[in-house]
Amino acid sequence: MFKESMSKGSVLKPNVFMKGVLIVALAGLGGGRAVGGSSISAAEAPSTQGGWQAEFDDLCSKTQDAMTLSAEDLTVLIQRCDSLVPEIEKLDATRKTVFMGRLKRCRGLYAYVLDSKKNEKK
User: Are residues 102 and 27 in contact, defined by beta-carbon separation less than 8 angstroms?
Assistant: First the structure.
């Protein structure tokens, strides 16, 4: 059926939506070069970007363990998320949107768990 629907010599072209999804996915995975970003390698990125990427990765890597963290640890994570916002604000529009959204979700989870732990104590 697939072969019948294609005329001889035709080429399948990805639609605009799929191109956009691919660009956002690559940007979120640090594929800035693949979408026309800078030419620095992934290994160089944290040192040249002030370490914000490493901090971001560390912050958001703890979301799976959020329920096991103490209230003090959650408070520190929330503060670290807040202090990372200015660094992400400096990024280009696409990367800023992706990383800011992810950071807000991580922070939101930590704040939700912290609130639930405080309510348990009451």
Answer: no
Ranges under pLDDT 70 in the chain: 1-50
Whether the CB-CB separation of 14 and 21 falls below 8 Å is answered with no
Counted domains in the chain: 1
CA dihedral of residues 34, 38, 43, 44 (deg, nearest 10): 180
Tell me the residue range of the domain where 11 lies: 2-121
What does the pLDDT read at residue 50? 57
H or E element at residue 79 = helix 71-89
Q: CA–CA separation, 82 vs 94, rounded Å? A: 20
Distance of CA 97 to the CA centre of its chain: 9
Q: Which two tokens stand for residue 23?
A: 């660009």
